Amino acid sequence: MAKIYKTMLISGGGIQMMDTIEFEGAFWLIPEWLVSPDRKQMRPLRGVSLQTIPHQDLGEKQKAQRFVVNGPIPESVFRGLQPPEGPKFEIREELRIVLPNPDVLN
Fold first, then answer.
1. Whole-number mean pLDDT of the chain?
2. Following DSSP, what letter does each residue of 46-68 receive, concatenated?
């Protein structure tokens, strides 16, 4: 079963914690989830690959977060839009993975 990690990053002028999953051999930031009508499952609305973003992997032993992104990420990236200038990000819509919703006890 896929595991949800946390990543600390700067976006929108503040520090945020964002869900991160491993999918197809890479780690992806997940800014928003689509939750099933019964609330038992969820899937990513979009993912932003960490492969092209400078970051630190703190390892799985860290409780608060697994990754820390080295610099700010424009908010527009999490809405699926590339910034007009600067580095380009790998953004994918609706990653084909379904996870149990950790907010619901089965």
1. 92
2. EEEEGGGS-EEE--TT-SS-SEE
